[in-house]
């Protein structure tokens, strides 16, 4: 990371030197939103989808993004040109700014991070494990930074060999720490529609899968999950990952499902057609 | 604040220069807990109560406090000696530390902030207004930094002239942004017992009030709130503040209640007896 640049409040600075004063409200009060997307060979798939979501998150929690969309794209492009990565992550982070009383919002701090070498382990193809947490995110349509509920479960995740936490509440499932969840039952696909962050990959997987089978966006119960034939997750870095075990209970036969593979192949064809 | 010192990771540094790298998980993922208490004439009322709560918060979210209690007290004492404030606030903040992938916990960052001149406006005696939010904090017994749900309502708070947000969920009330809530009805006192951070001032107000009237710690509904004779909040900086209006609806006759005043006077006598 030694020569990596990032962007903070209208300045490009080396990542290693990128600091904020401790009075930042993102740090002191969790008053921050973000978004995250990938650069592939210098281009960013579905950039406008991600920026739509970022500006919408900011609006919903009353934070002003200091750059309009055109200028933001310029800054991202400049950052990518400087860092010269091929296949990197880009994280936008917007906080409530510096606050004298550590409570009242100030002028937002805005930063763009460009991260290299942290995505898409291939072992995910073999399927992954999840653990459960009774939790419903507040303002689920907003990409807030509050991940403590699952991060505090790292010891339990290690114990189970799980990579993420699946949230459920009142008997219904919603999403995992950083991904959307889908289940296959009787050759139909279902995914929760309420109380979730609407993933960009989720949107495209639904679109692609509809060519192959019935797809339902609706409430999905924990009971249905246990009774499902196949389960998978979708996310920006992961694309699609089979889920083979949840909280020690096998899903289906405990192996990646056939329809999951079929949808995944169709999604990868769709993705490649975008020219990335 | 120009000569104020604070403490970060075993160093005393000028507050103005106190910064964290942007890879801190408190900033990136809201993975942080804190506590807050007052120094009065060089002494800290109920310090062990606050430290009990701080170490308990840390334990419940799997964060290690890098100092044991004796050493932490030494650092706080040293900070107070250096800053020489009389009547200041002390904030402990513990985060998940620096994280290469901005997700996996690192070695916690721990800081002690000493804040001057931000507490207890006298105008609170006249009673304050609140607004409502349907929200239940996750792990309410942990003092997490996630205040975005109420901070994002600053514009609405301004519109109503409200100072804080009262949380309710499934028809029951819990707590406000930074305080506990009590209501008086038919000369009895009630305060929510579940889903709240157990305030140190709350504990002592209950103790004091029990000498004066029946006190119930139990579930309290929003309907009861509207039907109550008097409402007040308790907090470390505020001690007791009458609440006279919530979301535009007057409580009782819209003025601070007589029993609220009686309990408040008894609490202040108790507080002064501690020798502060």
Describe the fold and architecture.
- The structure is a homodimer of 276-residue chains.
- The first copy, chain A, is built from 8 helices and 16 strands.
- The mean pLDDT of chain A is 95.
- Chain A has helices at 25-29, 47-60, 69-83, 148-151, 154-160, 200-209, 222-226, 258-273, and strands at 5-8, 11-14, 19-21, 32-39, 88-95, 109-116, 128-134, 162-169, 172-176, 180-185, 188-192, 215-218, 220-221, 230-235, 239-246, 249-250.
- Chain A is α+β, with helices and mostly antiparallel strands and 276 residues long.
- In chain A, helix 6 (200-209) packs across helix 8.
- In chain A, strands 7, 8, 9, 10, 11, 12, 13, 14, 15 and 16 form a 10-stranded mixed sheet that branches. In chain A, strands 2-1-6-5-4 form a 5-stranded antiparallel sheet.
- The interface between A and B is large, with 52 and 52 residues.
- Strand 3 (19-21) of chain A pairs antiparallel with strand 3 (19-21) of chain B.
Keywords:
16 strands, alpha+beta, homodimer, 276 residues, 10-stranded mixed sheet
Give a brief rundown of this model.
The structure is a homodimer of 276-residue chains. In chain A, 28% of the residues lie in helices and 32% in strands. With 276 residues, chain A is of the alpha+beta class.
């Amino acid at each position: 990371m030694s020569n990596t640049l990032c962007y903070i409040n209208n300045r490009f600075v080396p990542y290693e030197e990128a600091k904020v004063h401790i009075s930042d409200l993102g740090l002191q009060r969790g008053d921050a939103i973000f978004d995250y997307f990938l650069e592939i060979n210098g281009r960013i798939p579905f950039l406008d989808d991600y920026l739509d979501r970022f500006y919408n998150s900011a609006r919903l929690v009353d934070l002003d993004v200091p750059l309009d969309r055109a200028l933001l794209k310029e800054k991202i492009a400049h950052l990518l040109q400087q860092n010269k990565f091929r296949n990197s992550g880009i994280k936008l982070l917007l906080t409530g700014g510096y606050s004298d009383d550590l409570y009242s919002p100030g002028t937002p701090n805005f930063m763009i991070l460009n991260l290299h070498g942290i995505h898409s382990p291939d072992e995910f193809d073999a399927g992954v494990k999840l653990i459960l947490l009774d939790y419903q995110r507040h303002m689920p349509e907003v990409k807030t930074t509050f991940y403590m509920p699952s991060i505090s479960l790292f010891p339990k995740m290690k114990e189970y060999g799980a990579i993420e936490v699946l949230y459920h509440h009142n008997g219904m499932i919603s999403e995992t720490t950083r991904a959307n969840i889908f289940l296959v039952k009787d050759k139909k696909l279902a995914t929760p529609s309420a109380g979730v962050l609407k993933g960009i990959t989720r949107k495209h997987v639904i679109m692609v899968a509809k060519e192959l089978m019935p797809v339902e966006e609706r409430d999905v119960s924990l009971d249905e999950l246990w009774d499902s034939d196949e389960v998978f997750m979708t996310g920006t870095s992961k694309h699609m990952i089979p889920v083979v075990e949840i909280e020690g209970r096998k899903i289906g036969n405990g192996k990646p499902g056939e329809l999951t593979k079929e949808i995944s192949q169709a999604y990868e064809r769709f993705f490649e057609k975008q020219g990335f």
